[in-house]
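Amino acids appear as letters; backbone shape is given numerically. Here is one record.
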Amino acid sequence: MTAKKQRSKRPALLSHTRPPTLRKNEAALSAKATRNLIRSHHTLLKQRTQALRVGNQALVDKIDAQIQENGGLESYQLASKIGQSSERGGDSSKVLIEWISPQIADLKTTSSKLRVLEVGALSTKNACSLNETLDVTRIDLNSQEPGILKQDFMERPLPLSDEDRFHLISLSLVLNYVPDPVGRGEMLKRCVTFLRQSPPVDSSTTFTPSLFLVLPAPCVANSRYLTEQRLEEILTSIGFSLTKNKQTSKLIYQLWEYSGKRQPREFRKEILNPGRTRNNFAIIVKRDVK
């Protein structure tokens, strides 16, 4: 038997036996394609909000059609899940677990758990969900799997008592999905309503009610209307204090403890960081009307 024939009988590598469609899908969801899909989806949502504001229903319908042509919310979520995969930088809740581990260590020896509300949940198998000391409630606009409730956080029924509230709320790459600057401010204010008003979990450990916030770095580092200082001013006015902060080339991770010491004030859309290459991400906070 010739060497050529022997080589032809060698088992094929698994990578060579994958269907062409799988390789095609992987290529279609490359890092560049993922970023483009997410960016396009955000742009269309902003345009849709502007069209609704001026009452241009024809334009709203046209944009809705464009969103569907791009795969709709499902494609956006798929791109987001891939963007948070280990191949693309990993699960953002790993940072959260790392930060709060010292505070929840005592819970391992008790029956108590921290109640966590994960807004915009994409998976039931992230670090947050797999931690045995956390009782995680997961919600998303378009649930991708069992264990994630299909629900809009802004329409979630308000808690009736402290037992219905949470020790921790996770907004990981959620605030930037809200297309309206006013809506972003309202979302941050609404978080306070769903946080427990007293820190103690049980007699052996305490945990200060907190907000885990993750944003694309350009939303803060390269915006005309938002800086790190302005973001801190906004959250401080709502009653939060910054305890943990981490920034990579792509993301900003922050942990905010809720003190309850509010200093209500308005924050308008004003140029803080001028420049032609800046983006227009902004957060507007309006005073509550009593």
